User: Fold this.
Amino acid sequence: MERPLPDTDIPNLDKFLHMVEYGILSYLIIRALMGSEVKLPHGKLIVLAVIFATLYGASDEVHQMFVPGRTAEISDLLADLIGASAAGFLKR
Assistant:
């Protein structure tokens, strides 16, 4: 099985990286929505950004089911949701 990350002694490094990546994605979506023509309350923009980022994470996990050497993991999607939500919480 191919390993996209080098072996490391850091436990759950891949989950941490998922949280960081999707936290950044959620933050950027929030910024984009705030600067767009979409006129929603700030809280709803954050919820929408978290949903979009998490759905993108879900689509990535589905994609990985079809890539040799990769697997879809619900724990990766959960890490995506946590990272996206943390960014939303920090941006509020």
In short: The mean pLDDT is 91. The radius of gyration is 15 Å. Residues 19 and 80 are 5 Å apart (CA to CA).
